[in-house]
Amino acid sequence: LPGIRIVMVGKTGAGKSATGNTILREKIFEQKDSFDSVTKKCQQHQQTVEGRNISVIDTPGLFDTKNRKEQLKEEIVRCVKMSVPGPHVFLLVIRLDVRFTDEEKNAVKWIQENFGEGAARYTIILFTRGDQLRTCIEELLTNKQIRELVEQCKGGYHVFNNTDKENLLQVTTLIEKIDGTVKENGGGHYTNEMYEETQRKIEEKEKRRKEEEERKKFEEEEKIREDERRKLKKKELMEA
């Protein structure tokens, strides 16, 4: 059976490390129950699960404002290199038991901005803290913001209870959903070329932005110089 490469993204404290341990059925990723990021750099571990080689990449809190933009960029590049020739799925990890924030709401947009528009086709939302769910997940999806987020992800969603390590079915079902996503994408995966194309577009956009800033700055400076010339000419005429 073919292997699966998984990249987990999400806020600090969402339960990415615990999710990685549940998938690999072993406590490999360091985890603690807090909103301080345990994972500072991308980490990769792999195990044979159900006869398949499963590779999981845990990322730092990619929406963490403490991370500088440059650091974030470096980690994204590391993450892509680790997953070569590319991940089959991005697992967007979100906690069920905390308030749904703008960061979660804009999470898919963030993935698309950093990995490209097409990355949403390779994304599955993984809700953690399934044990805290007081109702069925379908009822939770009546929340407009959560429903819209799920609809953006072509891979759909899944619910995990990371405290119930004996529940092997939740991992089996996730693997089946990942296989379904791969099939929907023609048997392919997100590629390094897609990432490079995204970066090229980002660089072009940044270049255009800087050029526009420089143009405006030049026009403003030229206007100031023109005003100064006019004032000087007026002064000369008055003194003549």
TrEMBL record:
PANTHER family to which the protein is assigned, alphabetical: GTPASE IMAP FAMILY MEMBER 2-LIKE-RELATED, GTPASE, IMAP FAMILY MEMBER-RELATED
Similarity comment text for this entry: Belongs to the TRAFAC class TrmE-Era-EngA-EngB-Septin-like GTPase superfamily. AIG1/Toc34/Toc159-like paraseptin GTPase family. IAN subfamily.
Residue spans of biased composition, Basic and acidic residues class: 197-240
GO molecular function term, any single one: GTP binding
Keyword field: GTP-binding, Nucleotide-binding
Keyword Ribonucleoprotein: no
Protein's recorded name: AIG1-type G domain-containing protein
InterPro entries: G_AIG1, GIMA/IAN/Toc, P-loop_NTPase
Pfam family, one: AIG1
Ranges for region Disordered: 185-240
AIG1-type G domain span: 1-199
Entries under PROSITE patterns matching the protein: G_AIG1
